[in-house]
Amino acid sequence: MNEPSGNPAPPGAAPPREDGAPWPYASLFFFGFFGTDSPAGKRLAWRTTWGLGLFLLGAFLLAPQHTVTSVGGFLAMPGGVLLIGRAYRSYLRELDELSRTIQLEAFSLAFGAAMTLMAILMAVEMVAPPGTHLGPGTAPLATWLLLAEPFRGLALVIVARRYR
Amino acid sequence: VKNQIRVLRAERRWSQADLAERLGVSRQTVNAIENSRYDPSLPLAFRIGRVFGRPIEEIFDFREEEAPQ
Fold first, then answer.
1. Residue B38: its chain A contacts at CB < 8 A?
2. CB contact under 8 A, B27 and A21
3. How far is it, in rounded angstroms, from Cα A77 to Cα A59?
4. What ipTM did this prediction achieve?
């Protein structure tokens, strides 16, 4: 590797390494972030894993077939989501400005797409014959909100490709 | 906004990774700026100028007709 220096290189010096830098599209699409190569990415992975674990624990404790419902169960589900939200907030702060822009643009696109889809389904349900259920009337609201995640992965890839 | 970063970098025989390390950004960000796909913020533009020892206006060329309406 050429050691960066402030002065132009002398004649005959070795050329720099190959340029070109593709975004980690697979990681963006499937996991929604730039991968675990950076310390910030590793921290995000760990924190979101803990958050998801806490969320699932809460869901388990609050499941109707279980008698072990407790204050802990009520706290665990929103606590897990809060942990994931805080992890993303920290992650965004640690990214450089272009990576942060890509993440924020993808968040806005995914939010808009999920809300639009939900509105369309609700509108269809309102004009459909009685007894037809397509919207959140038959599915927990969280199911519809979770649609935002695949939208976000797709949006990340689309936005990142604009900056290649 | 066009820029001279690729030329200045080539003069110093720095790779994009070398420059990215000096600027504290990702290699993809350097690549996007070089290809005029992304216009850096003012603080980052100043850092770029400092790294190359040049004023910003020598590195970046802003054309009025390219500005968004």
1. 98, 101, 163
2. yes
3. 6
4. 0.86
Q: Amino acid identity, residue B8?
A: L
Supply the pTM of this predicted model.
Answer: 0.80
Q: At what angle do helices B27-34 and B16-23 cross, to 10 degrees?
A: 110
- Cβ-Cβ contacts under 8 Å between A and B: the total is 81
Residues of A with CB under 8 A from a CB of B: 1-2, 4-9, 13-23, 34, 96-99, 101, 162-164
- pLDDT by residue (tens digit) across B15-37? 999 999 999 999 999 999 999 99
Of A9, A17, A97, the CB nearest to B41: A97
Q: Which residue, A89, A92, A88, A90, is CA-closest to A100?
A: A92
Whether the predicted pLDDT of A18 surpasses 70: no
Task: Tell whether B47 is within 8 A of chain A (Cβ).
Answer: no
In this prediction, residue A4 carries a pLDDT of 46
Across A14-53, b (16+ Cβ under 10 Å) vs e yields eebeebebebbeebbbebbbbebebebbeebbebbeebee
Q: Is A118 helix (H, G, I), strand (E, B) or coil?
A: helix
CA–CA distance from A70 to each of A34, A56, A62, A75, A137 (Å)?
37, 14, 8, 9, 27
What residue in B sits closest to A34 (Cα-Cα)?
B26
